Amino acid sequence: MSIRIGILGYGNLGRGVECAIKNNPDMELVAVFTRRNPDSVKILTENVPVYSVDEAPSKKDDIDVLILCGGSATDLPVQTPEYVKCFNVVDSFDTHAKIPEHFANVDKVAKENGNIGIISVGWDPGMFSISRMYGNAILNNGSDYTFWGKGVSQGHSDAIRRIDGVKDAKQYTIPVESALEAVRSGSNPEFTTREKHTRECFVVAEDGADLPRIENEIKTMPNYFDQYDTTVHFISEEELKRDHSGIPHGGFVIRTGKTGWNNENNHVIEYSLKLDSNPEFTASVIVAYARAAYKMSKEGMTGCKTVFDVAPAYLCLQDNAELRAKFL
Amino acid sequence: MSIRIGILGYGNLGRGVECAIKNNPDMELVAVFTRRNPDSVKILTENVPVYSVDEAPSKKDDIDVLILCGGSATDLPVQTPEYVKCFNVVDSFDTHAKIPEHFANVDKVAKENGNIGIISVGWDPGMFSISRMYGNAILNNGSDYTFWGKGVSQGHSDAIRRIDGVKDAKQYTIPVESALEAVRSGSNPEFTTREKHTRECFVVAEDGADLPRIENEIKTMPNYFDQYDTTVHFISEEELKRDHSGIPHGGFVIRTGKTGWNNENNHVIEYSLKLDSNPEFTASVIVAYARAAYKMSKEGMTGCKTVFDVAPAYLCLQDNAELRAKFL
After folding, report:
1. I want to staple A148 with a disulfide (CB 3.0 to 4.6 A). Which of A2, A251, B149, B192 is the partner?
2. Helices marked H in B59-152 — which ranges?
3. Of the candidates A79, A24, A27, A28, the residue with the CA atom closest to the CA atom of residue A56
4. Contacting residues for A61 by C-beta, under 8 A, at least 6 apart
5. Residues near B24 by beta carbon (within 8 Å), at least 6 away in sequence
6. Tell me: the pLDDT tens digits for A112-140?
7. Is the distance from CB of A176 to CB of A197 less than 8 angstroms?
8. With 90 as the cut, is the pLDDT of residue A1 above it?
C-alpha cells in the first residue's frame, strides 16, 4: 500500500512536492489543500482533488503525511502546530533564529495528539545542517564554512524590486572561488562577509528611470548589499525572462580539522549542491522525510523531530537488509 | 562523567582512536588490549594500562564501549561477535560483500546479551555509504558515482611487495579528473574501470633485479592492475621513506538526478574527503559512533546497527537543543 500524501499550499514548493511524489513509487498524492478558491487551482496530477484548507481536518483518515508548503514568515509558525493536531506533518521552516521556539510549539501539540512533525527540512536548513553536524562530530578540532550559490536569492531580488523605478529584478549570490580554494587548502582562513560572496543583480528599470540612482540604492542598501561587492546590470524585460527565469541554487559546506597526537594531520570534508531548481530539490528532500515521518509514526514515535533525529535508513524506499547490501 | 573507551588492537587504527579520544572532551581511554606481549606495547596516553586480550572480559564493568581495531579478513569476523557478548562495540568491518553475514552474526549475540554493536564504521563503508543513501533517498531518479583517491591502497601496495625482486612499494589510486568533471556536468556518463581511476606505483627494487620484468608483472597483474592505466616509478629506499611514508586518502561520492514533471531539471550532490591520514580519519569517525553506541545503549537499544540506523544527533557531544540552535 502506498504512503498517502497531502500537500497544503500549492506554490513553487507545493508543485515541487507533487513532482517528487511522481518519482517515488511507494507514494501517492491524495489531496491538495489551498487557501485560494479550489476551482481556480489546476494541478499536474490527474484525478487528485483540490480542497479548501478548511476541509483538511475532515480528510485526516485519508492522509498519512501532510506536507506544509507555506512560507516561514507568517504561514508555518501558525500552520505546523495547527495541522500536527490531525496529521503527521513535514515543513521547511527556515528562519534559523526562531527554530527553537517553533520546535517547542510543534513538539507540544504533536505529543498531545500522537503525531510526528518533522520541521526545517530542505537543504539549508536540512542537508547542509546534517553535513555541518557530521563534520563537527567527526572532526571535533576544526572549523566550519558554509558558502551559498551560485543561486537566486528571493529575498534580495524582492528587496531590489521595492526600489522606486525598478520594474523587475533577479539577484544571484555567488561564492568567491579564491575563498573556497583557501578553505580547501586547510589554511583555516577567516573571512569578512565581503570576502566570501559577491552579489550580481539583473534589473529591469521603468522607462526614464534614473539608473545611476537605482544602482547606488542597491549597492548601499543596509545588510542586503552594503557589505558585499555588488554588480548591477540593467537589462530589458525580455532578457530577464529569457535568461533569468530559472531558480537555480546550491552551495558548499566544508569542515576542516586536524587529527594526530600533535594535530599534525589535516582533513577536509566537503558537501556541495548544484541545483537547477531550488524548490524542486527542497521538495525532493521533504518527500524523503515524509517517508521517514510515516515509518517513524508506524513505530509509535511522536513529537517534533528535525533532520538530526532521523536515522538515514528511514528516508529510503528499500528495507534495511537491502540498504546494507546495496549502499554500505 | 566521561564515556569510558577501550581499544582492542593497537596498530595504525588503534593509535588513531587513541588520538581521536584526546580531541573529545567527553571521552576517556581506560584500557588498551593487545594480542602481543602487553609489556612490549607502548601507547601515547599516560597512565592507561595495556592488557592482554585475554583479560578483556574481566574489565567489562569498567568500559562503556570497546573499539575493535583488528582487520576485516580474519580478526573482526571472529572478534565482533565474541566481544559484543560483554561490551558495546564498534568495528570498521569493510569487506562489503560479507556485511550481511557479519551483521547477522553480531546482531544475534548483541541482542542475546543486551549490547549494541555498530559495524562497518569509517568512511567507506561509513560516511561514503551515508552519502550514497541520502543521495538516493532524495534523488530517486538518478545515478551514483564513487571515486577513490588520491590515496594509498594498502592492498595494492602489498600485492606489489609480493613480486619477486621487490623490496618495498607504495601504490596510489588516483581518480581521473576528466571523469569527475563529466559526472559533475550532469551528463550521466558510463565508465569502464580504466576510465575512472589510474594507478601510480613507487617501487624499491632489490639490487640487480630485472626492472622491466617487475614493471610488466605489476601492469599485467589480474584484477589489481590489468584493468587500469598504471605508472611504475623505481625509486630508492630513502626516497620512498622521505616522500611516501604518509597514508593519505580520500575520494568523491556524487549523486546526479533529475526532478520536474518532465525530468527537466538536473541536480548534483557531491560529498568529498581529502585526508592526510586514512587511519586517523577512520578512527575519528569510529569514535563519534562510539559516542552513539553509548547513548543508544543508555536508551535501552540493543542489537547490531550500521551507520544507516544511527540518527545524526547521537554522534554529537552537544545536547539536542544546543544542536538545533547551533547547526540547524
Report:
1. A251
2. 76-83, 99-113, 127-138
3. A79
4. none
5. A140, B287, B291, B317
6. 999 999 999 999 999 999 999 999 999 99
7. yes
8. no
- Report yes or no: B266 at the A interface, CB cutoff 8 Å: yes
Q: For chain B, what's the residue count?
A: 328
Q: What is residue B1's predicted lDDT score, i.e. its pLDDT?
A: 79
| Partner residue facing B137 (CB), from A16, A138, A315 | A315
Distances (CA, A) of B256 to A274, B111, B122, B129, B143: 10, 38, 24, 16, 5
Distance CA B316, CA B26 (A): 10
Task: Report the alpha-carbon distance of residue B306 to residue B285 in Å, rounded.
Answer: 13
**B122's grid cell:** 569509517
Chain length of chain A:
328
SS3 B94: coil
Question: In this predicted structure, what is the pLDDT of residue B219?
Answer: 97
Question: Cell 496529521 identifies what position?
Answer: A87
Supply the pTM of this predicted model.
0.96
**Amino acid, res. B25:** P
What pLDDT sits at residue B239? 98
pLDDT of res. A229: 97
Give me the residues of B, 34-93, that contact A with CB < 8 A. Answer: 44
Mean pLDDT taken over chain A: 97
Q: Answer yes or no: do B127 and A134 touch at CB < 8 A.
A: yes
- Beta-carbon contacts of A74 under 8 Å, excluding residues fewer than 6 positions away, are none
Residue with cell 586547510: A186
In this prediction, the residues of chain B whose per-residue pLDDT falls under 50 are: none
Helices within A84-219 (DSSP H only): 99-113, 127-138, 154-161, 177-184, 193-196, 211-219
Q: What is the ipTM of this complex?
A: 0.96
Per the CB < 8 A criterion, the answer to whether B210 and B165 are in contact is: yes
CB-based contact B184:B268 (threshold 8 Å)? yes
Instruction: Check residue A250 and give its pLDDT.
Output: 97
A272–B270: do the CB atoms touch at under 8 Å? yes
Distance (Å, whole) CA B319 – CA B299: 14
Three-state SS annotation for A231-280: EEEECCHHHHHHHCCCECEEEEEEEEEEECCCCCEEEEEEEEEEECEHHH
Q: Establish whether the linkage from the previous residue to B326 is cis, with ω within 30° of 0.
A: no
Set of cell numbers at residue A259: 587529527
Q: How far apart are CA A67 and CA B79, in angstroms?
A: 46
Q: How confident is the model at residue A144 (pLDDT cuts 50, 70, 90)?
A: very high
Query: What is the tens place of the pLDDT at every residue in A55-94?
Result: 999 999 999 999 999 999 999 999 999 999 999 999 999 9
What does the alpha-carbon distance between residue B276 and residue A82 come to, in Å, rounded to a whole number?
50
Per DSSP bridges, beta strands A166-175 and A197-205 are antiparallel
Q: What is the 3-state secondary structure (H, E, C) of A15-34?
A: HHHHHHHHCCCCEEEEEEEE
Angstroms from B255 CA to nearest CA on chain A: 10
CB neighbours (10 Å) of residue A217?
18
CA distance A9 to chain B (A): 18
What pLDDT shows up at residue B262?
A: 96
- State the DSSP H helix or E strand holding residue B21, giving kind and residue range, or none if neither: helix B12-22
Residues A61 and A87 sit within 8 Å (Cβ to Cβ): no
Name the DSSP class of A146.
E
Preceding amide of A38 cis, omega within 30: no
Could you give the CA distance from residue B288 to residue B273 in angstroms, rounded to a whole number? 17
